[in-house]
Amino acid sequence: MAGLKILVIGSGGREHALAWRLALEGHQIFCSPGNPGTAQIATNLEIEADLTVVGPEAPLVAGVVDQFRARGLAIVGPTQQAAQLEASKIHSKEFMRRVGIPTARFVRIETIGEGLTALDQFDYPIVVKCDGLAAGKGVIIAQNRKEAGAAVTSLGPRLVIEEFLEGEEVSFIVLSDGRNFVPLEATQDHKAVGDGDTGPNTGGMGAYCDGRILSGAEVGKILDTVIEPAIRATGFTGFLYAGLMMTAAGPKVLEFNVRLGDPETQALMHRIEDDFAGTLARAAAGDLKTSSLKWKSEPSVCVVMAAAGYPGQVHTGDPITISETSAQVFHAGTKVGPQGLETSGGRVLGVTASGADLALAIANAYEGVGKIHFDGMHYRRDIGGKGLKRWYNESRRGRSSDG
Fold first, then answer.
1. Which domain holds residue 175?
2. How many helices (H) and strands (E) does the chain have?
3. Strand 51-54 to 5-10 pairing
4. Residues 148, 211: one domain?
């Protein structure tokens, strides 16, 4: 399917990645409001489009899909009711318990006093989550009672307190038409601001996409116990994102999002091989029954370059210089000011590259990072490292069994 007019709603790195992928397929892309990166490949205007793709969660929670459908306009995303899976942690956790989707044991909290009392029900560490939208930063892992009390006080009053799960985190996303769905390749996000998963949580400091993150059996388990029950119970349309912990007892849901992740999207768009726009159009039309997506074999890596102070008080207005690089640089927190390209938000750029294997993909992404400068910039230097460690350990086990 070629030659569509496609509107992408949003202004971050995820939306730039979506626009970039769709533009590569020969479509006319419009972004609202867009950013300086999307302006290079799309028109940052609001127009009546053949198809609309919503990037961020806020318009979905506000009911943009309902409004578009009421006017007979094709749009990819969930209804306002289905978007409550992300809008409210309390709603989401109670939905999972009701439907039987595996998740951590939790307590619903309505007041700070109630939260402080509930801390006695858990061993440490524990997880404290604010109920509403928090751009990926409304979660605190408390190591002891003192930290937990401070978390309840700062994030409350409406909270979820839940047990801490051991394992490795995986992001698993599907595109659904309400009955049928197309799985995307698994990705792994890096939430903490510092190397080795240290420091406070962020919206995401990088991600990688590799066909070896999950085995076929693990994917089947996720589809059977998480994705299919959620879609069956809600009639969910659009991108359903399951943030998972792969525990010894199997996959358990940490959170549901109702849109593509950021920075997972940047890595995913770099690996898609075929007609993404056509698949989106079929999803909007309720016709995904025979659809699938093809993926390049090469892994992809996105490294987020953040502004000074992120994820706290951010310094903006710093000039950005980008030298020539083979990596794809997706804009997020940027603007065009008097001095040219400047920082305008916390997560500034998502530098994304692929390679013949994960090690080369990582090297290519960091080569791109080295071609960029702005004052106070910081980024993690271990994006994809867990994948390298996993492949190394599996290789050693394989050599041991052969010997």
1. 168-284
2. 13, 23
3. parallel
4. no
